[in-house]
Amino acid sequence: MKTLFIGGIKSGKSRSAENYIKKLSDKKPVYLATTEFIDDEMQERIAQHQQQRKSDFITVEEAINLKEKIALQEGAVLVECLSMWINNMLYREKSYAQMEAEVANILELKQDIVFVINDVSCGIIPENKLARQFVDISGKLSQLVAQKCDEVYHVVAGISTQIK
């Protein structure tokens, strides 16, 4: 089973995905954290997510090689989140083709995987090239993941609505 939770920043998508995977899994699921400690503000966000998930998950951290880490897991995996992974990949000057290949390979894995990604499709076209590149890649990868997932949920104001 592959599932996607998509929503805006602070929409409640992470909490919805966490609750979903806990019900899906018969044992403690893996929380694959992709966010890197960049600055104090990001460290605070990470701490909030750690507090939110408590000891309900086995936490594995990986900023780049998601397929490699997911393939090592025995149970269900929550990928939190693809948006930060895209950011990490762009920072390391990885191409869209490399990202697309990695995501396509992840989608072929046998594990139950729940993905979280920010919905960036409702904003304006950013003024700088890197931000436009992020938005474009995020939109394309969201489409790829949603197409291949068994279920897709859009989250707004903490409410998850199944759209696929």
TrEMBL record:
<keyword id="KW-0808">Transferase</keyword>
<feature type="binding site">
    <location>
        <position position="61"/>
    </location>
    <ligand>
        <name>GTP</name>
    </ligand>
</feature>
<comment type="similarity">
    <text>Belongs to the CobU/CobP family.</text>
</comment>
<keyword id="KW-0548">Nucleotidyltransferase</keyword>
<keyword id="KW-0547">Nucleotide-binding</keyword>
<dbReference type="GO" id="GO:0009236">
    <property type="term" value="P:cobalamin biosynthetic process"/>
</dbReference>
<dbReference type="InterPro" id="IPR003203">
    <property type="entry name" value="CobU/CobP"/>
</dbReference>
<feature type="active site" description="GMP-histidine intermediate">
    <location>
        <position position="49"/>
    </location>
</feature>
<keyword id="KW-0067">ATP-binding</keyword>
<dbReference type="GO" id="GO:0005524">
    <property type="term" value="F:ATP binding"/>
</dbReference>
<dbReference type="GO" id="GO:0043752">
    <property type="term" value="F:adenosylcobinamide kinase activity"/>
</dbReference>
<comment type="pathway">
    <text>Cofactor biosynthesis; adenosylcobalamin biosynthesis; adenosylcobalamin from cob(II)yrinate a,c-diamide: step 5/7.</text>
</comment>
<feature type="binding site">
    <location>
        <position position="80"/>
    </location>
    <ligand>
        <name>GTP</name>
    </ligand>
</feature>
<keyword id="KW-0342">GTP-binding</keyword>
<comment type="function">
    <text>Catalyzes ATP-dependent phosphorylation of adenosylcobinamide and addition of GMP to adenosylcobinamide phosphate.</text>
</comment>
<feature type="binding site">
    <location>
        <begin position="7"/>
        <end position="14"/>
    </location>
    <ligand>
        <name>GTP</name>
    </ligand>
</feature>
<comment type="pathway">
    <text>Cofactor biosynthesis; adenosylcobalamin biosynthesis; adenosylcobalamin from cob(II)yrinate a,c-diamide: step 6/7.</text>
</comment>
<dbReference type="GO" id="GO:0005525">
    <property type="term" value="F:GTP binding"/>
</dbReference>
<dbReference type="GO" id="GO:0008820">
    <property type="term" value="F:cobinamide phosphate guanylyltransferase activity"/>
</dbReference>
<keyword id="KW-0418">Kinase</keyword>
<protein>
    <recommendedName>
        <fullName>Adenosylcobinamide kinase</fullName>
        <ecNumber>2.7.1.156</ecNumber>
        <ecNumber>2.7.7.62</ecNumber>
    </recommendedName>
</protein>
<dbReference type="Pfam" id="PF02283">
    <property type="entry name" value="CobU"/>
</dbReference>
<keyword id="KW-0169">Cobalamin biosynthesis</keyword>
<dbReference type="InterPro" id="IPR027417">
    <property type="entry name" value="P-loop_NTPase"/>
</dbReference>
